[in-house]
Design a protein that fits this description.
Blueprint (H helix, E strand, L loop, with lengths): L13 H9 L6 E6 L3 H6 L6 H5 L4 H9 L13 H11 L7 H14 L10 H14 L4 H7 L2 E9 L5 H7 L7 E7 L1 H4 L6 H12 L6 H17 L4 E6 L9 H12 L6 H22 L2 E6 L1 E2 L4 H7 L7 E2 L5 H13 L5 E6 L5 H7 L12 E3 L9 H14 L19 H19 L7 H20 L2
Parallel strand pairs: 1-2, 2-3, 3-4, 4-5, 5-8, 8-9
Antiparallel strand pairs: 6-7
Helix pairs in contact: 1-19, 4-5, 11-12, 13-14, 17-18, 18-19
Length: 466
């Protein structure tokens, strides 16, 4: 029996051990999609205890606790930080096979040098040990990012964000980690939303553009895009339950926009037409700027209305959707390719039924501007476990170039989430190590080093031009 989560954890063959410890472990991290707060990075406040680092805002852990029948009082409610930590420790032993079990203990090992597994029996000891280290050491956001060997990260920012903390952080030469904004204009696209007109009025005030029609809207958008350019933006980020694709004209888009601004209801067909036209406009701007366009497709969000009304959005009540994506995504990409304005694009689906669709679609739209210009994004959200990661990489390898893959991201709000990259790297090294062990790829150290360092770091660095 192997030791619990030893140095060769998840490395099941000799080549995997060599690849991980010789090459992967030393690579810096580019976290090209996360939800960390740039304000928190700038202000750089010390946490008071492990719960503040671990459980505040982490809906992965909240879902696990709810599954154990724990009252919301101990999750997002007014329980003390120790009581919340204790509640999480009560649930964790039941999470065998869940990636959270591994992430939790990797975080304890890497940041607190604690090898003991968390359980009701060890709760107080681990609580005291973590908090003693927090009290005596530097566990501020910046220090944690530096400790985690982060080269660069992209925080997800709304189109109308002031970006003030990005600007302030950029002026601080004492902090060397690159913190760049990724532009997320979802609220601009969600024309059917009840607060859409208020959002546009706010945009009008901020950009000093009187937005009366669709043409005015595009002018205001370009002003905001330029703000992101000035802050070093390298990517956009879009989230869709269902990928929109319904062609229309500028005249139709304008009529739909005016209707929404006048408070009239928007049909599903009109919403899709508006979103398609605006996405084509945005994508052409991304191409002009050299940005990567991230398309996150498939989650159904906030499905427990009662609980969302109680604790708010993005609090752990989302799940996997099952809409079809093949025709809409391929048609959207093809429209852009027809005018040679298709930007670098990263396709994510939350449902692994779409893996074959994405893996084969990539090859339709590659060109000679970038290696693997169209990327299959890493196993995302409900797929970022061992099975999901292995399946995504196998499916990519079967239909494309795994060696050009830009690798892992955290999609996280936690400054302790970076061992997820270690988790991914171990799985990746074990997968290709098994192929080498089986004689399916040569034991060529030069080629192997290229593959491992590329997928872990270099491919993303070159792809985003960081």
């Amino acid at each position: 029996m192997k030791k619990f989560m030893s140095e060769n954890f998840m490395l099941d063959n000799e080549v995997a051990v060599e690849l991980y410890h010789t090459y992967a472990v030393h690579q810096q991290i580019i976290d090209y999609h996360c939800h960390l707060s740039v304000r928190e990075i700038y202000e750089n406040k010390q946490p008071q205890n492990i719960t503040q680092l671990w459980l505040y805002g982490d809906h992965y852990k909240w879902r696990l606790m709810r599954s154990n029948g724990i009252s919301e009082f101990f999750i997002t409610g007014n329980a003390s930080d120790y009581e919340k930590f204790e509640a999480y420790a009560q649930a964790l032993p039941y999470a065998i096979g869940n990636p959270l079990y591994h992430w939790t203990h990797l975080e304890l090992q890497r940041y607190f040098s604690i090898d003991t597994w968390l359980s009701p029996k060890t709760t107080k000891k681990i609580w005291d040990s973590c908090n003693d280290k927090i009290e005596k050491g530097d566990y501020s956001p910046r220090k944690l990012l530096e400790t985690s060997n982060i080269y660069a990260l992209c925080t997800t920012e709304d189109l109308m964000d002031t970006l003030e903390y990005h600007k302030l952080l950029d002026q601080d030469e004492s902090f060397t980690v690159k913190v760049l904004p990724a532009m997320r204009p979802d609220k601009l696209l969600n024309i059917e939303s009840d607060d859409f007109s208020m959002y546009i009025k706010n945009m009008s005030e901020i950009t000093d553009v009187e937005i009366r029609n669709y043409q005015d809207l595009k002018k205001a958008v370009l002003i905001r895009i330029e703000e992101f350019v000035q802050c070093g933006c390298i990517a956009s980020d879009h989230g869709f339950e269902k990928m929109p694709y319904r062609r229309s004209t500028e005249e139709e888009a304008n009529a739909i926009f005016v209707k929404a601004m006048n408070g009239q209801s928007i049909s599903e067909e009109d919403s899709e037409k508006y979103k398609t036209m605006l996405m084509l406009f945005l994508a052409k701007e991304y191409h002009r700027l050299g940005w990567a366009m991230e398309l996150h497709i498939g989650p159904i969000r906030s499905r427990n209305t009662r609980m969302v009304e109680m604790v708010g959005e993005s609090s752990g009540f989302d799940s996997i959707g099952d809409h079809s994506m093949a025709i809409a995504v391929s048609s959207f990409l093809n429209d852009l390719e027809m005018t040679v304005q298709l930007p670098k694009t990263i396709l994510f689906s939350i449902n692994d039924k779409d893996n074959g669709v994405i893996a084969t679609m990539l090859g339709n739209f590659q060109d000679d501007k970038y290696p693997s210009k169209i990327q299959f994004g890493s196993a995302w959200w409900f797929q970022d476990h061992r099975d999901g990661m292995e399946k995504q990489m196998r499916d990519l390898a079967n239909a494309g170039l795994l060696g050009r893959f830009i690798g892992m991201l955290t999609d996280s709000r936690s400054f302790l989430s970076y061992p997820r990259h270690e988790y991914f790297r171990r799985i990746f090294c074990n997968l290709i190590g098994s192929w080498i062990e089986n004689g399916e790829y040569p034991y060529d150290l030069e080629a192997i080093e290229m593959l491992v360092t590329g997928v872990c770091f270099k491919n993303a660095k070159e792809y985003f031009g960081i």
